[in-house]
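#data-curation
PF: Archiving a pair of folding outputs for the training set. Convention for this channel: one message per protein, sequence first, structure tokens after, nothing in between. First:
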Amino acid sequence: MSTQTPAMAAAPANPSANRRMLLMFGILLVSYVVNAMDRQIFPLLAADVRKEYGFSLADIGLLSTIFTLGMAVAGWPTGYLLARFSRKTVLQIGIAIFSVGTLLTAFAVSMSDMLLFRAATGIGEAMQLTALIAIATTAFVRSRAIAVGAVNASFGIGAIIGPLMAHPALAAYGSWRAPIILFGAIGFVVMIMITFTVDAALTEVEGRDNGAKLVGGATTLMNRNTIVLTVLSMIGGLIIYGYLGMYPVFLREQLHFTPADTGQVMSIYGLGVLCSLIGGWLGDRFSPRAVLGLAFLAATGLGYLLFSSAASFTAQASLSFVWGFIVSGTIYVNLAGFHVKSVSSQLADRASGAFVTSLYGAAAIAGYLIGWLAGLGGWGQAGLLQVTLLSAIAALLSLAIRPEAMSVRAVTQ
């Protein structure tokens, strides 16, 4: 049964209460920073894992992105769980599953159990992310895309910190397992913080913010905008996680970057992701056709330059920064935000689940696919097919979105 009450539906109007809401939201964002730290370090450590176990390039690509299969499986059901249990409860369970799966990864003995543990982390992340997006978009109605941008910016912070922390731990203990265990343990610390500092005034609010409420939007998920955005999210999953899953392997094995240089490039990518607040601002103020269409168009050129043209550290670092802003900071953020905007506020939880399932369902095969393509015809061809071509198709599909059918904010007395 739902834990939400009418009292929870009205967000506080006084400055002190608003500051408290932002502080609680900040603590939730810290939980996603920890998540991102693990997400970034496994691809960074993938070459070491591959060497120890003798995995193929395609196998390590699958391990790098298999967690997205768990996210795809859990994303949609989590939307329904959120209709029956509090968002805080679902989020906490998700963090616990993610942290346990991360710790167990360090003790895997074969490809099969490592795949299982990595997939389990995806189930946990789906629960955490779906709840977090629902909280962000219903607690901060005035700036929903910016709120999602803040969630993604926290991923960027983790993407910066993760590689920087992983390299010293790897050097100190001489094992790729040390950073994995460290970040898994931190997850439980964050759970304790959330338990005692975050309450229903933030997590269970329903589509109101200081006198603003939502009107319009589809009353079912079977609508034109959601369908188009679902296809775009699937393409986005292949693009984003083709990069995240295998780009560090490309740097180390194709361009022969050192682990330290690879970590620095990925941290600079994280700096680009910090621009997610700008990407969210764009989504709150301009047409989804223009924002997604132009961003996907930019991704077509970036894909070619990353995998076929640039070879120096400076070039790869610069392109990765732009990739972080355009692809992760703008495309990802606004796919999530527009999914929620496409429906009425009552369907926000389920729309978040649909976004997670569609994007991460495709992402589950992204690492394997780009690794297979690279093994077949080289990294240049892999980037051309999986990033450049798919981005061009997505740019055209963005024109089919109907902005006038999305929910909007109406100010009440």
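PF: Second:
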Amino acid sequence: MKNKIIPYLKAKKFIVLGAVVGAFGGYAYYHFVGCASGTCAITSSPINSTLYGIFMGGLLFDLIETTITKKTKNGKQ
């Protein structure tokens, strides 16, 4: 099992990095901004905010990695 996980994480390291950065960002947003009334769907709890940050961070870093990869394959650096 370990032999399959490590190569996968190495191949997706940019997405994993984005998820970690997003987790910190999501929790920081909850902590510093948050939602005073408690009616906000994402920012009313630290779990929701952190999970949203993980998701958005992974997507953003994947987009950045894809853009960089396409530019280097086309010869534009």
